[in-house]
Amino acid sequence: MYLIATLLCLSSFTAFALAKTPHYKAVFGTRPDQTLSQRYLITAWIMLLLTLGLNISQAVGYGSLMFCGQMALAVLLLGVMLAFRPRWVRSLFYLLPATTLLATVLSIL
Questions:
Q1: CA–CA separation, 19 vs 34, rounded Å?
Q2: How far is residue 77's CA from residue 33's CA, in Å, rounded to a whole number?
Q3: How far is it, in rounded angstroms, from Cα 51 to Cα 7?
Q4: Torsion angle (degrees, nearest 10) of CA 6, 101, 95, 51
Q5: Smallest Cα–Cα separation from 89: which of 9, 8, 7, 18?
Q6: Global pTM?
Q7: Which of 8, 9, 40, 104 shows the smallest number of beta carbons within 10 Å?
Q8: Distance separating alpha carbons of residues 70 and 10, to the nearest angstrom
Q9: Which of 82, 68, 84 is nearest to 20 (CA)?
Q10: End-to-end CA distance of the chain, in Å?
């Protein structure tokens, strides 16, 4: 379950980054329109709250600590990727939902 929470957190911060015009332009080469940016922000907040909920439901005492660690890891990975290889974020943008879905299915089985 912590893998799912970490993937959700990374997806959330990817959406936060893509909601900003400079990051979106570095990744996709165009400017995002206002509705797309708002959708990214709403989706990012929902995924971040899901991550917090997952962590607290798994480890009541240490859930918030795990959440802080996952956020730090996600921001570090995304920041390094945006600084050195912004085009890789496009691949990450498409792979993260599939990987999260696969991890969820495998955890249920």
A1: 9
A2: 26
A3: 9
A4: -20
A5: 18
A6: 0.91
A7: 104
A8: 8
A9: 82
A10: 12
